[in-house]
Amino acid sequence: MKRAIAITGGFGCGKSKVGDILKNLGYEVVDSDTLAREAVTIGSKGLKDIVTIFGESILLPSGELDRKKLAQIVFNDTKSREKLEAILHPIIRDDWLRIYNSHSGDLIFYLVPLLFESKQSYPEISKSVAVYASEDNIIQRSSLPPQEVHKRLKAQLPIEEKIKRADFSLENNGTIADLELKVKELLKCL
Question: What is the CATH number of domain 3-185?
Answer without folding.
Answer: 3.40.50.300
